[in-house]
Specification:
By secondary structure, this protein is α/β, with parallel strands linked by helices. It has a single domain, classed as Vaccinia Virus protein VP39 (Rossmann fold). The chain is built from nine helices and twelve strands. Strands 3-2-1-4-5-12-8 form a seven-stranded mixed β-sheet, with helices on both faces. Strands 9-11-10 form a three-stranded antiparallel β-sheet, with no helix packed on it. A two-stranded antiparallel ribbon has the order 6-7. β10 and β11 form a beta hairpin. α1 runs parallel beside α5 and α7 crosses α9. The radius of gyration is 18 Å and the shape is globular. The protein starts with 7 loop residues before the first helix and ends with a strand. The model has no long low-confidence stretch (mean pLDDT 95). GO terms for molecular function: methyltransferase activity.
């Protein structure tokens, strides 16, 4: 629930996401029928890099409607917890968990801001702290995020992060060859656009949003400063959607045409606690 004291950016972002939840839940993009029938929504490279989660406790921060969270449960996690600041999204996630037959001890969903996760989760720690693609851009303070994340990682556990590359976020959306935004800026990109990525023509009322770009160095340094050891940092020359007009589909990915300069479009990292 938003309050009068809530920062304007968070209130606007929450209103934007809350309104889009029913659109997403009914969309072919998320295809809840296929998911309930067994579809796994965790990208293959993520499953490979995270490894076997059998018997592990996993928390998914900024989980939206919980499909990835529940996919990890299907992959053998003993307990999964999804957290999102959108109460309508959390209600959809709980509904999916119920339809799949998971008890609350196996799959729980919590409505809370990611910065409040430590308190909202009652101090619980996890073997795997997972954050899905397209999450970090909604947070203004990466240092505070890293502090929260580190507090959730149990001894011997790790954070796994997969994200759109911050360099790709500042290149022009037409060709991906020119800088159009400031890579190192801490100021938000403020947009006021109707629709949503599952239906650009959807009629929506709450269209104001605030997003931030976090440089790779800022992310890695923040995690290291909070006692996590970087196990790997991988950069990929492909992405999962038509980020630039020049990208060409290659199976389930999109890449720059053969012979053109390549830039990193996505990245992943693993950071562990001893």
């Amino acid at each position: 629930m938003s309050t009068a004291s809530e920062p304007a950016w968070r209130e606007a972002n929450r209103a934007m996401w809350d309104e889009r939840v029913p659109i997403h839940a009914a969309s072919a993009f998320y295809d809840h029928d296929a998911f309930l029938a067994g579809k796994d929504t965790v990208a293959g490279f993520q499953a490979d890099e995270v490894g076997d989660v059998t018997g592990k406790r996993l928390v998914h921060l900024q989980c939206h409607m919980g499909q990835d969270t529940l996919s990890w449960a299907r992959r053998g996690a003993a307990r999964v917890v999804g957290l999102d600041f959108s109460a309508p999204a959390v209600e959809v996630a709980r509904g999916l968990a119920g339809k799949l037959g998971y008890a609350a001890e196996q799959a729980a969903f919590v409505a809370a801001d990611v910065y409040d996760a430590r308190t909202a989760l009652g101090g619980e720690t996890f073997d795997v702290v997972y954050t899905g693609i397209g999450a970090l851009c909604w947070l203004p303070d990466i240092e505070r995020w890293a502090e929260v994340v580190a507090s959730l990682v149990a001894p011997g556990g790790f954070l796994y992060l997969a994200e759109f590359h911050p360099l790709a976020n500042v290149l022009d959306w037409g060709t991906g060859t020119r800088f159009e935004r400031d890579y190192l800026s801490r100021e938000p990109v403020v947009l006021d656009e109707p629709g949503t990525y599952v239906d650009f023509a959807a009629e929506t009322e709450h269209n104001l949003s605030h997003e931030w770009n976090h440089a790779i160095g800022a992310v890695v340094s923040a995690l290291a400063a909070n006692g996590l050891r970087i196990e790997f940092l991988h950069e990929f020359d492909w992405t999962l959607f038509q980020h630039f007009g020049t990208l060409e589909r290659d199976g389930g990915a999109f890449r720059q045409p053969e012979g053109t300069p390549r830039a990193p479009l996505m990245y992943s990292l693993k950071a562990s606690r001893a």
